[in-house]
Amino acid sequence: MRIALGLDTDGPLEKTVERATRLRDRGFRSLWSSQIFGPDTLTVLAVVGRELSDLDLGTSVIPIQPRHPSMLAAQARTVQDAIGGHLSLGVGLSHRVVVEGLWGISFERPAQYMREYLDALAPMLRGENVNVQGERVKAVTMGTLGPKGVATPSLLIAALGPQMLKLAGTLADGTVLWMTGPKTIAAHIVPTIREAASAAGRAAPRVVCALPVTVTSDVAGARERLNAQYATYGTLPSYAAMIEREGATGPADVSLIGTKSQVLDQLHELAEAGVTEFSGAPSGTSEEREGALEVLMEYQHDA
Questions:
Q1: Which of these, 85, 258, 272, 282, could form a disulfide with 151 (CB 3.0-4.6 Å)?
Q2: Is 269 within the bounds of a domain?
Q3: How many CB atoms lie within 10 A of CB 1?
Q4: Helix, strand, or coil here: 156?
């Protein structure tokens, strides 16, 4: 299992590049960044990757509703060119409260929307022409979008439910997970996506798992803080379903919390469940976050 880190992209670009440089200098070579309400993540990654060409960079994830697939394909291929071919493009559906409440876009039939979107996006990322006339997505191209001659970015989907996992295995290179524990990954995520990929004649899918990590001797205190910090995710239906499937009661129950040896054991459990890349989100006090970085580096060194 490869080790990665979440990259905080809030604030000035210069500071983001400095953070990425510090992480690279400590030995981390894979960084993932989310797209929520801050800077445009793909633009930030283009800058970071241009400065630090030895990093693998990924989005976890870009919501698809505000971006037509032709626009996203052109942008992703441009970033791929800018950073030397090290981009993993993670895309997702976001959540009804955001899509309808903030953007004013219908969230109806999300799986159908994703299927039609991928029918257009996946070949566009390969530089191919498309003519998609779906019920939700229409897209026609007459030439390569973005720079020509660049490697196809790896395409991942934020897939948790059965329909989305089947789409991820059939039309993409894997999935990006959040708030999903090892039991759920082993019994639900990995078997479903692998079966779909095999049936489609595709390579074994990537399973990228992102979770908070806190190294501490005060487990009870850390759990309380994590549940408060990540409380919103327990209210969003897709994540709440994964927490419930795990037999957990809140975000802290699927986070990596404990001493260094305990967190190492939890990392090994994720690897055994089928995770191919773990993206840690160090949380807690400065000492707890530093402990998280150290244990992630230790696991990476021993792997």
A1: 85
A2: no
A3: 18
A4: strand
